[in-house]
Write a structure and sequence with these properties.
Blueprint (H helix, E strand, L loop, with lengths): L1 H35 L3 E7 L4 H16 L4 E7 L4 H12 L5 E5 L1 H10 L5 E6 L18 E5 L4 H11 L5 E7 L3 H16 L3 E7 L5 H8 L5 E4 L3 H5 L1 H10 L4 E3 L2 H5 L4 E4 L2 H16 L11 E2 L6 E4 L1 H7 L5
Parallel strand pairs: 1-2, 1-3, 3-4, 4-5, 5-11, 6-7, 6-8, 8-9
Antiparallel strand pairs: 10-12
């Protein structure tokens, strides 16, 4: 009798053990499925549509897709309007995002002002710390990290001297409302001075000023230098039309402007910039590293490309080897 009772109890214990084990395994499977099915909610604010910023967005998305990171994307373009940046940033603040991607300095400034607890990755920002986006570039703290699009201004002036050895007067054209452009303009003035060139700043407040300002430069300068300025980049067609009509060459900040008719550049690859931004997003979302603990990234010199628009060179009457 005792043996029968013991056998019965043993059977019950085995059943309980198997059920518990099965529940544990099912729980592990559910946890694994939950991890695999995680879909991150990302919001992107791009200041304006032009080739460089578009490439930065495409590189970001391509990197995340290649890594198999699942996400939904709310892409918003402010069309160059600061008020639109503010409105979009306010929207994102209420959207419970897992991460926000800000493309260009004004966009990043609006995002930082409105999103206090959401991780932020910024790109196409020349100097995040100087633009008030973080405490220092080496140790951002806060909720933002970034990849800088600091353009090789000195190398671009070397290219200017190489391609235009007779040029003496340089017009530095940029939008005074963009902090990143002012930083590059100061670097351009220093690079010109180091090469005994006369450099003069010509600024626009918005796209409506471009035609008038560029026309005012004709006959006063031998070449126009344009940094990676979003307003000028978006209006580069106007710049090129006036310059080509007046045989006035342009050395520009990035290859998208060369594709649009600018004469030449030695600049960074904005698609690569976007991919680095994607790496930063992966580090934050997947590896759970706080953005403020990730130093601002910079592209290597190998990411810079020399590019010349030979059709524009022909229009300008410049021979390029």
């Amino acid at each position: 009798m005792i043996k029968k009772i013991f056998a019965a109890l043993l059977s019950v214990l085995m059943v309980i053990s198997l059920v518990a084990c099965g529940n544990k395994q099912a729980g592990a499977a559910n946890q694994s499925a939950s991890t695999e099915e995680k879909v991150y909610k990302i919001g992107t604010l791009q200041l304006v549509q032009h080739a460089a910023l578009d490439a930065s967005y495409n590189g970001f998305v391509d990197y995340l897709n290649e890594k198999g990171i699942k996400f939904t994307m709310d892409f918003q373009n402010a069309s160059g309007e600061q008020s639109a940046c503010e409105t979009i940033a306010e929207k994102f603040a209420n959207d419970n995002l897992d991460l926000c991607y800000a493309i260009a300095t004004p966009a990043a400034q609006s995002i930082v002002a409105h999103l206090e607890t959401t991780p932020i990755v910024a790109s196409a920002v020349t100097d995040p710390a100087a633009s008030g986006l973080c405490q220092t570039n080496d140790n951002p703290r806060g909720m933002l990290t970034a990849v800088s699009d600091l353009t090789p201004v000195d190398a671009q002036f070397e290219l200017l001297v190489e391609l235009l050895p007779n040029a003496k007067n340089v017009g530095v054209l940029y939008c005074s409302a963009e902090q990143n452009s002012k930083i590059q303009a100061d670097m351009a003035l220093a690079a010109a001075k180091a090469r005994n060139l006369n450099a003069t700043e010509y600024t626009v407040v918005n796209s409506n000023d471009i035609q008038t300002v560029v026309e005012s430069m004709v006959g006063k300068v031998d070449v126009i230098y344009v940094p990676t300025d979003n307003v000028i980049s978006a209006g580069i067609d106007t710049v090129v039309t006036i310059c080509n009509e007046n045989k006035l060459p342009t050395i520009v900040g990035e290859e998208g402007m060369v594709d649009k008719g600018g004469f030449a550049t030695y600049g960074i690859d904005y698609y690569s910039l976007g991919r680095v931004a994607g790496e930063l997003a992966e580090t934050i979302l997947v590896n759970k590293i706080k953005p403020g603990d990730i130093p601002v990234r910079y592209l290597s010199a190998e990411s810079c490309k020399r590019k010349i628009n030979y059709e524009t060179a022909k229009i300008l009457g410049i021979e390029v080897n």
